[in-house]
Amino acid sequence: MVGGGPGGFGPAPSRVLVRAPGSFRYLGTPLLLILIAALVAAARRALRSGGAGGLVGESTVGAGDVVGWALVAFFLPALCVTLLFIWTYRELLTPTEASRRFLWSHRRVRPAEATRIRFVAPHETPVHGAAARLDVYGRSDEPLLSYADIDPEWPAVVAALHAWVQARPELIRDHDTAALFAQLEVD
User: Fold this and answer.
1) Chain center to CA of 16
2) Who's near 179: CB < 8 A, 6+ residues apart?
3) CA–centroid distance for 21 within its chain
4) Is the pTM value of this prediction over 0.70?
5) What DSSP string runs through the chain?
6) Using CA atoms in the order 99, 103, 104, 110, what is the torsion angle rounded to 10 degrees?
7) Cβ–Cβ < 8 Å for 162, 9
8) I want to staple 91 with a disulfide (CB 3.0 to 4.6 A). Which of 3, 18, 38, 161 is the partner?
9) 135 bridge partner residues
10) Which residue from 28, 19, 14 is spatially nearest to 152, judged by alpha carbons?
């Protein structure tokens, strides 16, 4: 929790940074690099052996070869994208802007450019419960940024967006969002 203000959210912070946890970045990176290196080495060995079956050490192609190549084709890009996500994903929320960076994509919205802030309450799905979230909409009236209540920085995000709402009350257009921010007004 941030601060001890109303609703347990406290005063609006000057800056909220959301990114992959440090344990993912510093412990996960070496593990991912080891897995990537092992997959690349296995594929390289298979290609150098001259046959498609080289991935599992045989000269003929069998079911194991197909499964092996399918695993390499799936996991190698997935592990690389995961590594890139861990190091490039970043959300920054300040009194003057909200932004998200991921790889080459950069989204940014300032309070004056925002068209609405919408709270989506948690709901159950057949598989598991969906997290509550706050969406920030831009001029295109589609969510540019979304913050989930499962993020450790959720209280700070709510407090920061509450400051946006106090400056521009017209950002609230529905009952659920109004109720969320109204509980912050109660002393």
Assistant:
1) 14
2) 119
3) 11
4) no
5) --SSSGGG--SPPS-EEEES-HHIIIIIHHHHHHHHHHHHHHHHHHHHTTSGGGGTT-SS--HHHHHHHHHHHHHHHHHHHHHHHHHH-EEEE-SS-EEEEETTEEEEE-TTT--EEEEE--EE-SSSEEPPEEEEE-TTSSEEEEEETTSTTHHHHHHHHHHHHHH-GGG--SHHHHHHHHHHH--
6) 0
7) yes
8) 18
9) 118, 146
10) 19
Residue 57's region, left for phi above 0, alpha for psi from -120 to 50, else beta, is left
- Interatomic CA distance for residues 20 and 112, integer angstroms: 28
Q: Give the tens place of pLDDT for each residue, 134-177.
A: 999 988 888 888 888 888 888 888 888 998 999 899 999 999 99
For residue 66, give both structure tokens: 């197909």
- At which residue do the structure tokens 């590594």 appear? 83
Question: Judging by beta carbons within 10 Å of its beta carbon (0-12, 13-18, 19+), is residue 114 exposed, middle or buried?
Answer: buried
168: which 2 tokens?
């521009």
Cα separation, 64 vs 56, whole angstroms: 7
pLDDT at 46: 77
